[in-house]
Design brief:
Layout: E1 35-41, H1 45-55, E2 64-70, H2 77-80, E3 86-90, H3 96-105, E4 111-115, E5 119-121, H4 125-135, E6 139-146, H5 155-170, E7 182-185, H6 201-211, E8 215-226, H7 232-254, H8 265-280, H9 288-304, H10 306-316, H11 318-354
Helix pairs in contact: 7-11, 8-9, 8-11, 10-11
Length: 359
Amino acid sequence: MGSNVPKSDENGRGTATVPSSGKGRQPANPDPSGVAVVMPVHGRLEEAAEALLGLSRLVPAPAQVVVVVDMAQDAGAVARLPSGAIVVEVPHASGPAHARNVGAAATSAEILLFVDSDVVAMPDTVARVTEAFARWPGASAVFGSYDLEPGDPGFLSQYRNLMHHFVHQRSREEAGTFWAGLGAVRAVGGFDVGYRFPSIEDIELGCRMRDDGREIRLVKTLQGRHLKRWTAWGMLRTDLLRRGIPWMRLILSRGHVPSDLNLDWASRWSTLMAWCAVLSLPLGAHAAAWGWAALASGAGFVVLNLPFYRFLARHRGAWFALRSVPWHALHFFQCGLAGMLGLLAHGRDQLRTSRPTPA
């Protein structure tokens, strides 16, 4: 530990492939010494330093900690990061998918544990991961969730991270996708480097794993503290541009809609109710029927999401839960908008691919 791995090549030709004896033939009791942590770092070095400090407290400790630093933006990042990690320098900004692949190529560990640089893993993280793979010996990936104590005290940060926690904790253990914020893999292919910004590269990898018949498990006791400060613009950009539209394009290209996490039926109906309320509300000034439709849609939205609001009230109080309702409705409205824009983008892609090649 502490020695530098050579810089990645210009195109970042790393892979996240982990050695394996074959699909479904995993060791029954993975050794904690075979776990390597891979963390991509791009800006926000204070958060990265806190996240790395959390890694130093893991019991048992991982075999290696590999930090992939975007040197184009953070030329002095290596000197400012805590010691005790293998550092791989990437000469240009190319996104977390590329960085994770490069980091994976720097280790031969059996299990790759991905931790975002704004996530503080709990001390028992390595133990939770190895226990999960022992419990499900056929699993190729496991992932967890954010905990109940986000690092930023702001209302939007608290709301956003608690929503993530709630969704993951209520979802089924047999997952249809993957999350790389705090997730581990073995015997899988690399992330798609076509995603050059934080997007759905982990979801896409999870879809490929599932298409290949691999097992993915959600471990609800595997949790980390999220340090990110959420803003209104950040949520809009993430829900619409970084995740919503790309996710819809991925769903349409695969021809299959998963029904877990935030694509369950309650979420789909919530999106419909949010849109009905928003579209009916301005028409209510001209016809009472539309006003009643908006009221009914709003009430239906609240009823659908009562478990979430009760959860917020239990952990942050009734006033916090009440303030969350309009932001929650906006979230689902944006999900519907992302779906429509993703559908248009998919149609454009189909037209491009169907055009005959000029002779």
